[in-house]
Amino acid sequence: MAMTQLDPRQARTRYLILLALRWMPSGLLLPVLTLLPLDRGLTLSELGLAAAVQGLVVFVLELPTGGISDALGRRPVLVASGVISLVGIGLIFVADSFALFAVAFAVQGLYKALDSGPLEAWYVDTVQAHDPDADIAAGLSRGGTVAGIAIGGSALLAGGLVALDPLPSVDALAVPVLLAAVLRAVSVLATMSLLVEARQRSGWQATVTAVREVPGVIAGSLRLVRGSRILQCLILVELCWGFGATAYESLTPVRLAEVVEDAERAGAIMGPAAAAAWFVSAGGAALAPRLAERVGITLTAAATRLAQGLFVAAMGLSLGAAGVVMAFLACYVVQGASSPMHMTLVHREVTEAHRATVVSLSSMVFQPAAAVGLVALTAVGESASLAAAMLVGGLIVAAATPLYVPAYRAERRREPAGDPEGPPAGSIA
């Protein structure tokens, strides 16, 4: 079956199924990925070093793997990433030393680098092959909803499995890892069955040819970004977001412990709050298209990004434990709404030939920004206060709002022509 034989509805259904299967193993790992290594003898500093290996691998390989996806095709890259993830999860299940956990995190880093972009790129390619003017924002928003529900639900399931300890021969903390491996295998099989594309490259020679094309694809993608002020600004948004995301992703438990003056009580609150965050993120993604219908995609992306910055800053105010948790959840609501709108703007500016590479570039800049943000904001927290760190993080996120101006101007120029979705992806406004 060729890619163009899938209509937008069929493509969206398959995209959502594959997206749910992709995120469920991640949700299962989320509550235990820190606890399991510590339970098996790693120190906190060793865990930090092992986890840093994953981030380094993702940063180094993000762009090349995006180029491979654009040159070779989405399906083989996604299948390979799933198999690699299965190996990584298996290593996590058996690891009992710093070295093994470091290798496991490195393998998971390779998986994340390969997995970043191809599924979303396939969905957009497929829809636009059928109708270049098709609305992709609604599908991406539904994807955000499905991902949030899959992660939140799986995280809750993982907590239940640890509490019930249903397999006496397996450590309770390892049971969710085992189920994650099973679901990853299902995800690989589903990808092989459901994801079809027009570009059929098979055999060793075709693979070698595609790999040789990767440097050219990457160079072409960088030229595309260099020639588009819109893409440049959207990537800078990722930089600001990556820096500020540390405030609510990493510092919230510490801030909450400071507010309630009890680390154990803060931990008890953060467990359900973290799961709830993904559910409310799903709700935000579901509401985003309705807001976009009223004010436009660009204004929706900009307004929700500004709101996210304000909510992060609010976590630094003296609002009590309830105020911190409410601001934390609000951050995820607007993140769920903003992300699919932001990615819709990115997809507007690229063609199939460079889509996954540009998406990977956008994701790649997030990694060092988050690392710098973690160092900077923890330094502010220690030298000044956590409240100050939250305020700084929120201001950095909010500072990205004016970067949507070029995309907004381009969207306004399209409106008189009666085409709110703009021209086919690949046009440079």
From TrEMBL:
Keywords: Membrane, Transmembrane, Transmembrane helix. It comes from the Bacteria. One of its GO terms (molecular function) is transmembrane transporter activity. The keyword Transmembrane applies. Coiled coil: none annotated. InterPro entries: MFS, MFS_DHA3_Transporter, MFS_trans_sf. The keyword Transmembrane helix applies. The chain crosses the membrane at residues 15-35, 77-107, 173-196, 268-288, 309-335, 384-405. This is MFS transporter.
